[in-house]
Amino acid sequence: MATSTATMSRLLTPVQTLATSGARAVETFTIDGTLHLAIPQLALDIPGQPAAMNGGDSDTDALIYRWEAGGFVEAATLPLSGGEDVEFFTLGTRHFLATCGVRSGRGPYSLDTEAVLYEHDGTQWQPFQRFAVFAAKQWRFFTLGERHFLALAQGVTVEGVVPRHPRESYLFEWDGERFVPFQRFDGRWGYNWAFARFGAQHLLAYADHVDGSLIYRWMGERFEPLQRFDQTGGRAFCFFEDAGTLWMVYANLTGTTRLYRFDGTQFEPVQTLGEAGGRELKLIDGAHGRYLVRVCFITGTPHDPHTSLTSQIYRWNGNGFDLADTFPTTGGTDAATFVADGQRYLLVSNSLSAEVRFRADTVLYRFDG
């Protein structure tokens, strides 16, 4: 089933640009009633160095912003080499930021780095726990009953590189004092996680670039494989429930993005939502319906990338998605949505310019859907 196209009206209006460099994620969170934004940055451009998406100076900072008077103002930074992800979560009244990066250095690079979990002390962020990681891509926090888990997607396959740190993706569990290893996942190039509850079932989706992506089901003691997607290029999953049915969207960088319906045993394909380039997905429950944002990264290859792409917003029609709007991205990596002062907004991070430079704006849009 192909994507249907409805008459489109503009849903997005740009209202602010943030001067970022190699932005890989956008994470919004609220502490003591104040909205904040964290943006990890992969790299800075090195003057005189040829354009290359795997080059640059990766000894960078994550940027922390605060919402003021209808926009974001920079409030702080956190050291984060080769920044890939920042995940905010709470445990009781405690606030945490889990950070990770893919590499350090200016070339040659080290893929063996340290991921830092920070806790907010009421005034600033303090290091709480450190993890030895290898080419780390994403943290994802979720709860299962009274248990708290932190999932790490990591790994890469590079000829001649021998990891010193653990290379497998891991699930860590909170033991009351810290996060301890709970379960190992075998993928060699982990990218992303998504967790879903559906009735009595608990599902965990893991996206991997080279070894195929999987959906796991909680079996009481650990997560066991439920369904495999063999194609390479796995980037992101998202789940949602509608009218008693569980749906899932799977984005693949080198293949198609597809919508699936869960039949109680397996996810069956229903609709194609765009060809190669999909990297991240974000659901929005807006004033006029449910929307899906598909953020596109690159097409081509890392050695010859095409970064200027068109990303999409789809509107749910009860059985599938209709194309509702499009917007430009250059090496798009992530999206986040929030409501402030009665208005819904959408944030989109761009990691590369049209010229394959790292200096590319993160864009804040007003969302009128």
Automatic annotation (TrEMBL):
Entry superkingdom: Bacteria
Keyword terms of this UniProt record: Repeat, Signal
InterPro entries in alphabetical order: EAR, EPTP, Quino_amine_DH_bsu
Protein name: EPTP domain-containing protein
Source organism of the structure: Paraburkholderia acidicola
